[in-house]
Every structure is written in C-alpha cells, then in structure tokens.
Amino acid sequence: MARHVSGVFPLCDLRGGEEAEIVRIGTSCEGLSRMRLLELGVTPGTRVRRELSNLFGDPAAYRIRSTLIALRREQTSDIWVQIPTS
To answer: Could you give all domains of the chain from N- to C-terminal order, each with its CATH number?
Structure first.
C-alpha cells in the first residue's frame, strides 16, 4: 500500500487497528450511496478506525462515531482519509 505524498489516501488502505480522519467523500460517490454514507456519519473531520477484516478482505468493519459499520472495498475506495497529527 502506497500512501500519497499529501498524506491523503483511500479508506480501504487503512491498516487494521489504525485510526484516521475523514477528509472527503470523492465525487464519484453520488446519489443514494453518498446519502447513506453521510447518514452513517461518514463526514469530513470524523475519526474512523479499521476494526475487523474479513479473511478475503471484503467487507471490513470500521468504527465510526462509536458504531461498527461493515463497508465494502468499492465504498471505501472513494472515502479519503489522513492520519491525524494529534
């Protein structure tokens, strides 16, 4: 997994047990999919932690606002995060 120079990378690249902060949801995620993510609390500034991974890697469980949510790789590939500095 290569992290971008800017420090921003897709949520699907977050390692198990690692915590990051959501920067944005990409523009290719739109309509009902985008609305669902926003309703689940996937908003800029929110902390997210990768908790559990499937043996095959998909889906994975993420802790967002004290709720454990299973998301597929196709969903998390368009959620951009960065490791918080503090």
So the answer is: 8-82 (2.30.30.90)
